[in-house]
Amino acid sequence: MIQENHITVSKTARYYTLGELTQHTKQVWIVLHGFRQNAKIFLEDFERLADDSTFFIAPEALNRFYLDSKGTKVGTTWMTREDRLNEIKDYINYLDDIYEKLDLAKFPGSITALGFSQGASTITRWLNATKNRVNNAIVFAGEVGPELLPLSEDSGLKRTKNYYICGKQDEIFTNNMLESVKHIYKELNFTEIFFEGKHEMNVEVLRQLNVSL
User: Fold this and answer.
1) What is the pLDDT of residues 51-98, one digit of tens each?
2) Less CB within 10 Å around the terminal CB: N or C of the chain?
3) Which pTM does this prediction carry?
4) CA atoms of 65 and 71, how far apart (whole Å)
5) Could you give the CA distance from residue 83 to residue 150 in angstroms, rounded to a whole number?
6) Predicted confidence (pLDDT) per residue in 178-202, tens digit
7) CATH fold of 15-206, please?
8) Where are the domains of the chain?
9) How far out from the chain centre does Cα 142 lie?
10) Residue 57 and residue 64: Cα distance in Å, rounded?
């Protein structure tokens, strides 16, 4: 008889940073890419927002795969439906490990966590579970992990200032879909921002937030 088994193993993960974390840093951004993307290219979008007071951290998803038949392009995914609960547990621990490695608990400034597309459900699951301090949560062209709602009393998403950002012409999160989930997201007290654009990471819209950049 075939039986499913699990073992916890060590794995080398990759993350990218932009800027320097120094005594002059006023804010830290943790930004998660979407499905099929990689952290380096995703972080390049944020270069236009970089300054001496801002430090960006872009963790890369733990699962890689080829995007073309020739094996010249590689993308990543945060999880699949296969063994999903363990993959969720793994990336929550992974994000906590990065937070602790960079000693962000001692950072006195503002910490913002942003997730784009698949990275949005990833970041909300982490924020829901983590005990680490994060001030702002941004769901960008994505969704909150559906199993998190209604929020538990100790959810980290009750401690963050929450934003929802989406393009008006988004091919995935259409207006009808957004209207249908607004009542579900009501308890998250999202500040909603919509921009002219499709399913894309538009960093310029971040300047509209009540978050210094």
Assistant:
1) 999 999 999 999 998 998 887 889 999 999 999 999 999 999 999 999
2) N
3) 0.94
4) 9
5) 23
6) 888 888 898 999 999 999 999 999 9
7) Rossmann fold (3.40.50)
8) 15-206
9) 9
10) 19
